[in-house]
Amino acid sequence: MISCARRMHPTFKTIALIGRYADPTVADAMLALAIHGLDRGVRVLVDEDVTLPFAAGIERLPEDALPREAELLVAVGGDGTLLYAARLAEGRDVPLLGINRGKLGFLADISATEMQERFDDVLDGRYSRDLRHRLQARLLNPGQPERRALALNDVVLQKRETGRMLDFESSIDGHFVNAHGGDGLVIATSTGSTAYALSCGGPIVAPALDALVLAPVCPHTLSDRPIVVSRLSTIEIRLLAHAPVRAEVTCDGVVVGELSPEGRLVVEPTDSVVTLLHPPGYDYYRILRSKLHWGRGARLGHPDP
Q1: Active site residues
Q2: What is the set of domains in the chain, with CATH numbers?
């Protein structure tokens, strides 16, 4: 749920910058934001391993210390950078702000052209808070320790070998749903509905909806279609015994482990949330129009309203 941006929220005195600085556009943005923050009297933190020539006064700390020290994490890059920052902040009630220097930017929604202006808005308390729920994935293989991971975007079951089909079955809240054949399955939050699930033909789900999308990856049968279920559902995936193909589980693109033929993948709700901050004027549907080239502006040449 997004809180109202018209009232003032708490301001920030300590921020941490996170970005893949090997990209020159990201490096330039991080350097500019660092200097701008210092000029405003803000304490600016960065990972001690970052080799950029930051100005004197920028504090370098171990990366895992940044969420403990900072009141705000500023992710500079694409949505992948923001997901990385979200993993870094697990267990910490620290909000995230995304500066888009990547390709799409559904999550990192502040453009380079308005970066400093919107950065000032947020530092001064002019922003809305957007709470996004995570999923929990549990990988249960006999004779092995249970593996757990959280996902803001999606949990993905995918085959490891090319040229072979993955056979598996799914159940929701204890009810058998389907036997699948294909390259895998994406279980996406409403936040992740615009990520991998979208490329698999899944629907776009408004972030405020408590929903999950189950989208088959390259299904063998045309009738195996994406479905939308409650966020509170528990989803279980098992490989079919006659299928020797190896399967891997990832959460937000990070490998959790391999699912054995006798194992289970359980995806379930969790109370863990990520708090995204948006500056004034944030409009989810305008972002969709911009990124997906929707609307009269793209079709008839009129400017986007």
Answers
A1: 79
A2: 14-127+279-300 (3.40.50.10330), 134-269 (2.60.200.30)
